[in-house]
Amino acid sequence: MFQNPEKARFHKRSVSLHGHKTSVSLEKAFWDVLEESSQAQGISLSQLIKDVDEDRQGNLSSALRLYALAYVQK
Questions:
Q1: Which of these, 2, 6, 26, 5, lies nearest to 48 by C-alpha position?
Q2: I need a surface site. Which of 3, 39, 44, 72 has the fewest CB within 10 A?
């Protein structure tokens, strides 16, 4: 499935949302896409996560995966 198995491993990152620290676990492949998207927009990864958090319906990890999927489909 993946040419690079490292891309499928979970990586946990800490972020601050609404003044509270939380951690988000995503596969490295998703983190890579989110970083690419934030750079393309000229914003920090933290800001991108905050933006996704404001618009999400479900849990944050799922919302970030859906955001990354929409980004690569454009």
A1: 26
A2: 3
Return the DSSP state at 2: -
Cα separations (Å) of 60 from 4, 6, 35, 57? 25, 22, 16, 9
Mark 39-70 as b/e (b = at least 16 C-beta within 10 Å): eeeeeeeeebbeebbeeeeeebbebbbebbee
Total domains in the fold of the chain: 1
Within-domain flag for 48: yes
Q: Which residues of the chain have pLDDT under 50?
A: 1
Domain span at 29: 25-73
- Extract the tokens encoding 58: 């479900």
Helix (H, G, I), strand (E, B) or coil at 7: helix
Residue type, 64: L
| Chain segment 33-48, per-residue pLDDT in tens | 999 999 999 999 999 9
